[in-house]
Amino acid sequence: MKRLMSMFLCCVLLASLMCTGAGADSSREYTDFSPELANEIGYTSAKWLRNDENRALLTVLLSIEYEKNATNGKNIKLTKRSAVADAEYPLVIVSTDEANTHLMIAYNPAQKFASATAIDISDSFDDETYQKVLADALGAEIYPNDILTVLSVLDDYKVSGSSSSGSKSSDSGSSTKSTGSSSQSTSSSSKSTGNSKITYYNPNNKGGSSASSASTSKPKATPKASTQYPFKTLQIQFPDYQAVKRYSVNDWYSSSQRRALLTALIETPYDGLRYKDESLPLPCTLFGTSYVGRSGTGQNTLYYVAIETDQPKVQLLFEYNPSKKTAKYALVDVSDNTSARVIEDLCGKDYHKNSSSAISDQYFVALDMQMQYLNTLLKK
Question: Angle, nearest 10°, between helix axes 256-276 and 52-69?
Answer without folding.
Answer: 130
